[in-house]
Design a protein that fits this description.
It comes from Lactuca saligna (Willowleaf lettuce). With about 210 residues, this protein is of the alpha+beta class. Helices cover about 20% and strands about 30% of the residues. A hairpin with a 4-residue loop joins β2 and β3.
Length: about 210
């Protein structure tokens, strides 16, 4: 896999393998993607408790991926991500599209071994705040931290990042394996501090992001 030195200017927060790229796509590209998403067959949507999603590229199961070809409109954006990031060892072959309405979110989770070692999240439509918290297997005891040469819990503070429309969030290695990520199920998310606060509107020292 190629070096990620070219992404250094996009690093955010204290975790060395977390990158936030604003305006990764244009607004016109965003509109084209949203049009493709919302004109897809109704059967492509799967409704869950607090969101709905589209699954493109096949079915992920414990033994791997039962692959299907991505449609051209997704292949175009996945090729752009692969070529510009130089982080993926092979072509991106699976995409999940999650839709969150106001008051919807997702519990802290890890994407699992099928997506290791790198995940890219393209944000469309409206802003949202994603929270990162230390994985429970590392937070249980300090001895676990020490045994895996991760230092102490103070080196792993929770943090949040605002994902603005057209932005790309990329996390790999430590940010992937040691942290869970999630979205609170509230319409307006307010934080005193996010690692990319300059990207969002600030109100009296607090960050307020309204999901649309």
């Amino acid at each position: 896999m190629e070096s990620s030195d070219h992404l250094n200017k996009f690093k955010v927060g204290s975790v060395p393998t977390l990158y936030y790229i604003p305006d990764f796509i244009s607004d016109s590209d965003q509109k084209l993607l949203l049009n493709q998403i919302y004109t897809a067959p109704v059967s492509k949507w799967k409704s869950l408790k607090n969101r709905r999603l589209q699954n493109w590229g096949g079915i992920v199961h414990e033994k791997g991926l039962l692959a299907q070809n991505l449609p051209p409109w997704l292949t175009k954006i996945t090729e752009k991500i692969k070529e510009e990031l130089c982080l993926f060892p092979s072509a991106i072959n699976h995409v999940l599209i999650n839709e969150y309405l106001p008051n919807q979110g997702i519990m802290p989770h890890q994407d699992g071994p099928a997506y290791f070692p790198v995940v890219a999240i393209l944000s469309l439509g409206s802003p949202v705040v994603m929270d990162f918290t230390l994985h429970s297997t590392l937070a249980d005891t300090k001895s676990n931290i020490q045994e895996t040469n991760h230092g102490n819990l103070q080196n792993y503070p929770p943090f949040s990042i605002a994902l603005m429309p057209c932005s790309l969030l990329v996390f790999k290695d430590t940010a992937y394996s040691d942290y869970l990520h999630g979205i609170k199920d509230c319409e307006i998310q307010q934080y005193d501090e996010v690692v990319n606060g300059s990207e969002v509107e600030m109100h009296d020292g607090d960050l307020k992001v309204e999901k649309g």
